[in-house]
Amino acid sequence: MPENKEVRTRFAPSPTGFLHVGGARTALFNYLYAKAQGGKFLLRVEDTDQARSTEESFKTILESLKWLGIEWDEGPHVGGPYGPYVQSERISIYKEYTEKLISEGKAYRCFCTQEELEAKKKQAEAMGVPYVYDGLHANMSEAEVQEKLKAGTPYSVRFKTPSKTLIFDDIIQGKVKFETKLIGDFIIVKSDGFPSYNYAVVVDDGLMKISHVIRGVGHLSNTPRQILIYEALGFPVPEFAHASEIVGMDGKKLSKRAGATSILAFRDLGYLPETFLNYMALLGWTSPDGQEYLPGDILPKTFDVHRCSKSPSTFDVFRKPKGGDEEVATNFSSLDQIADAMNPKSKLNWLSNKYIRELPIQKVAESLVPFLENRTDIPAEYRDPKNKELHSLVDSVRVYLDNLRQAPDYIAEFFVSDLKVEDGEAKEILSQEFSPNIVSTFYELLKKSDPKTDEDYKALMTQVGEQTGQKGKTLFMPIRVSATGKAHGLELPILFPLLGKEKLLKRIEKISVQVGISLP
Q1: Does the annotation place 256 within a ligand binding site?
Q2: Does the annotation count 256 as an active-site position?
Q3: Are 464 and 489 part of one and the same domain?
């Protein structure tokens, strides 16, 4: 590409569903490369599949991009010199170029019925050879064509594929070679008058002066058809970069459900947009210095599509399926199901914890508000992102957070006033014969010591175990119930430093009175 040519990239989603991980990564790579090169990033809506395209999907995709902070220089709601940026509004443009191709003998009308085409495909299958359209109507006379048109016979338009070896250099995949005789004459305009994907995308990219087409490797097989159309229309062929396949923890291509989880689901699970952008950038790309935590403007300054790997990239967000667990990891119907299927040791969680710890507390508090709104166990004034006491609480707990959805449970512990032992498992634990000794020993050692950190409390509980002869659940569960009234909750070494020694002592005293445990 000439040095003075402006870098222009685009993301062109079809509004037939939500924005999933693969699509979001494509948008991100295009956005980052344009920003890094001082170029322009376009958003174009490919809605020629009218049966499946919906306004709701269009709005969801825009909402997803805006949440991620991916802003387009040209496109819907922004405008630009090469609009409209919605394909269904560009039908007259495609028609003009179709007539041009037909008049130049580079395309022709095909009057084959669907039944005839299906029969040809079945015949090819029976013979064990790939199906290639036989060009039945490629050489019809003008009189024959006009007769069909006058009779109202439905038709599609096919591109007349020249026979040659097509070679191009893909920025990521390297040198790619195709034999066009294996393609055959393919449809560029469907019988309903709408252009095919391969045709519309070329007309749009050519007219919008797209310099780089960055997309998933699944589109590699579309490239030869598109290059042929670029050449036929006299448009410059852009540079292609086909990003690596994304696989799950089991090394297999992401399942339709797990891989296609909506980007907005991760927002609702409490991940910050900065976190998810950083994580997606590492799916097939490596920073120049090998760093993985890339806050602020590091990504837009350093991203280069030439540093992308053609090896599959692992989406480690979901744990590896195990036997019957496979359905849990791949078939989600709620946020809770997604949360249960997630891999706690994923790179996403590691990055999320770093961002939550290091972003300004005001930013974290503002992002936390949606997760506090319906928590009646947290006072209303603590749902105000400007509340300095909320800032103090968040600052105390954020080191323990993998996502903001976890935060309300931590914060709520500070406001427990009516502390009672829950019926059932909790009461049963404190009624066991060894429990009173464990609780009183922990209380006595706590009064005599001054623990501050999680390690201090771990050491304290280990000391209790040594004195009582208990370990594991029989040691920790009585301590938990005596401090919280519950059999389940936050990890004790995390909770206790947050509560502090004095509040913890008062809690144990209150619970002990309720169940009749004598304290020293």
Answers
A1: yes
A2: yes
A3: yes
